[in-house]
Design brief:
The structure is a single chain. The protein has about 240 residues and is an alpha/beta fold. Helices cover about 30% and strands about 15% of the residues. It is built from seven helices and ten strands. It has helices at about 10-25, 40-50, 80-85, 110-120, 160-165, 185-190, 205-210; strands at about 1-5, 30-35, 60-65, 65-70, 100, 130, 155, 180, 190-195, 230-235. A seven-stranded parallel beta sheet has the order 1-10-9-6-2-3-5, with helices on one face. A three-stranded antiparallel beta sheet has the order 4-8-7, with helices on one face. The longest helix has 18 residues, at about 10-25. Bound molecules: fructose -6-phosphate (F6R). Fructose -6-phosphate binds next to loops.
């Protein structure tokens, strides 16, 4: 595991964007595994800026997103499809037909999970998977549990996750209670993993995930077994590690 520290959120975002830009430049037809949430917003802003300056070309890139709320349509402003469109896809020359997010409106959850698993395999897997880290150590919507769930699955969200995500909704009651998420095998099969973390609230999760035991109670701890993981954080998120 490699740790890269930026002093501020802005620094952390630039360092992370550099990793993704390097991937795009070295392999222009990369499959990028992408994440939503507040942490990657700054890095997406850098990618858009560098595209506008002519330094990045997304024309051959395809993407698979980690997760999506169940029950939300892609046009709903709280959906992760909408997030990706507004923060990245609408501003760069990516072919939206090659950007994939689980279908929150799928009627049959089992079929949707199987479809998404097959899709990731058909793309040849992620060349780079970007991840945020939940305060409870979750990655995607893989919540603390008794075992690791390998493939794409539909989860009932932990109360702490609903509370943490309530800031994006009018109230906690409006946060969907279920979501589709890539599983641990889907994430671990990425050739390269980049984790972004910022803020004091993540410091404990960083310590537990990357310096504690490997356990499904801290889902991100499995990343200790991946051969190419880079954790990029600001000073606060790294404050409990040396
Ligand atoms: C988002 C995702 C989540 C977030 C995590 C951190 O697609 O899968 O695991 O990465 O909840 O969220 P933020 O960045 O909002 O702290």
């Amino acid at each position: 595991m490699r740790f890269l520290k930026g002093n501020t959120y802005q620094d952390m975002s630039r360092i992370a964007a550099n990793q993704i830009a390097a991937q795009i430049i070295s392999k222009p037809d990369s499959v990028l595994g992408l994440a939503t949430g507040s942490t990657p917003i700054g890095l997406y802003e850098y990618l858009v800026k560098w595209y506008k300056e002519g330094d990045l070309d997304f024309s051959e890139i395809s993407s698979v997103n980690l997760d999506e709320y169940r029950g939300l349509d892609g046009t709903s402003d709280q959906s992760y499809r909408y997030f990706m469109n507004t923060h990245l896809f609408d501003h760069v020359n990516i072919d939206k037909a090659k950007t994939y997010v689980p279908n929150g409106l799928a009627e049959d959850a089992g079929k949707e999970c199987a479809r998404y698993d097959a899709l990731i395999v058909s793309k040849g897997g992620q060349d780079l998977q970007l991840l945020g880290l939940g305060n409870n150590g979750h990655i995607g919507f893989n919540e603390p549990a008794d075992c690791f769930e390998p493939g794409t699955h539909c989860v009932t969200l932990a109360d702490s996750t609903i509370q943490a995500n309530a800031r994006f909704f009018a109230s906690a009651a409006e946060v969907p209670t279920q979501a589709y998420t890539m599983g641990i095998r889907n994430i671990m099969q990425a050739k390269k993993v980049v984790v972004v973390v910022n803020g004091k609230a993540k410091a404990e999760a960083v310590k537990n995930a990357f310096f504690g035991p490997i356990t499904p109670k801290v889902p991100a701890s499995i990343l200790q077994l991946h051969k190419d993981v880079t954790i990029i954080g600001d000073a606060e998120a790294f404050s409990l590690i040396n």
